[in-house]
Write a structure and sequence with these properties.
Two copies of one chain form a homodimer.
Chain A lengths: L2 H5 L1 H7 L12 H28 L6 H7 L7 H4 L3 H34 L5 H21 L5 H7 L6 H16 L1 H10 L7 H13 L1 H4 L8 H12 L5
Helix pairs in contact in A: 3-4, 3-6, 3-8, 6-7, 6-8, 6-9, 7-10, 7-13, 10-11
Chain A binds a DNA duplex through helix 5.
DNA sequence: CCTACCGATCGGTAGG
DNA sequence: CCTACCGATCGGTAGG
């Protein structure tokens, strides 16, 4: 899990500072406390994400969040400037994690695919990559610990324009991976719609699943991914 | 516009009551006032819809709504029991209007289609009907006065379970029209995915457009509908 | 991190 | 529908 490192780079940086004021050397307690600091921050983000997703940002009080991680009502503000800063932290962490997971999924698939058929028909290759991307996206949206991205998708009204702009950069990074794949699919006749609109519509279809998907009911994430592929991408004949 | 009648059936019913207590016969002022009552109620719903869509339900105060229609802070509660009741009224009106508009669009298309080709290939027919449905759906989501359905789609967390259940009935009515069309498209090989999942994914793709569609930018609603059709529905060859 | 607290806002109501 | 108002809740802070 790279979450903690991504979340609070500053904490790690201070860890080995040469002239820490009143920190006795070799006292393991302090070190434990510091790591705890990061954990508390992370706990707040995780707890907030869960509540923001289920109740919405506005309907969640900072007291709710504090209680969820076993703090008193004022304590979250020791870690975050404001409720909005906490929301933004959830979203940014969600995007960084999503980008990392997408890279990982592609790398994993890359080695598998290339070992099977080094020089495959480009159209077939594009289809396989697209399947990986879709399946991974469903995992990010609906899999275990999937509160961050849904919060980002459905609560972006509550962050500032500047924060939205920063997030947009990360979102572009995430979507950039899809563009050449969609281009290739269109070039081979497997995707008929305008590529830009197709991308928006496809993400809509996937992202909306947050509204209706129920783990306990029938369809698995694999089923979902297969249905989405069958719907969007035509067979190359 | 059938909105007013749909919204407050009770008002119309009382209008001709034989023994209205202190209402002088033939005083046109009173009649005007009563019609105004309906207008105020409708104004509240319309104003609330606009605010709920742009700021969200929780972030909109009943004072905001009152101000938007030129009332004092407590006055909305003369027309609605609670803020939640106002939200629900927006949603229910949105669904009833959407169902009515969908029927209208289909009727209009029906006469056109049948005059051109009385006995058409079923596959071609299904495709045309689907195009009508998609285009109409975009109109409901993004066209003029399109605040009601977006509010219903994105604020349903804030209504009660019972209200959600009632809305679900209306939503089923709306979606029921799509089912045979999708079945026909699948039967003719123009739709490859599982029909139920396809329906959910397609509605997702359409509904998500609320998040990104910008009237001022490039694509028209026709463009959108065409792109969606090209993406989901394959050509019958 | 906790305790104690503040100012602001909010949904809603009584009484006209 | 307006005026005046209430109780509750909320984000946030000071001071330890």
């Amino acid at each position: 899990m790279t979450m903690a490192r991504i979340l609070s780079p500053d904490v790690d940086a201070v860890d080995e500072a040469p002239d820490a004021p009143r920190r006795a050397r070799g006292r393991p307690r302090k070190t434990a406390d510091e790591r705890d600091d990061g954990n508390r921050r992370l706990a707040l983000i995780t707890g907030a994400a869960k509540l923001f997703r289920s109740k919405g940002f506005d309907a969640t009080s900072t007291r709710d969040i504090a209680a969820a991680v076993g703090m008193q009502s004022g304590s979250p503000f020791y870690h975050f400037e404001s409720k909005g800063a906490l929301l933004y932290a959830v979203m940014e962490e969600g995007m960084r994690s999503a980008i990392a997971r997408q890279k990982l999924a592609l790398d994993r698939a890359q080695t598998e695919l290339s070992s099977v058929s080094k020089k495959e028909v480009p159209a077939q290759h594009a289809r396989k990559v697209m399947t990986i991307l879709v399946r991974n996206h469903f995992d990010i949206l609906l899999g275990p610990g999937s509160d961050f991205i849904p919060v980002m998708l459905y609560e972006s009204r509550s962050i500032t324009e500047l924060q939205r702009a920063t997030l947009a950069t990360l979102q572009s990074e995430y979507e950039a991976v899809w563009v050449p794949v969609l281009d290739a699919l269109q070039a081979s006749g497997q995707l008929k719609a305008d590529v830009k609109l197709a991308r928006l519509l496809i993400f809509g279809a996937l992202n909306w699943s947050v509204q209706w998907y129920d783990l306990k009911k029938s369809a698995s994430l694999d089923d979902l991914a297969n249905a989405a592929m069958a719907l969007f991408i035509q067979d190359k004949k």
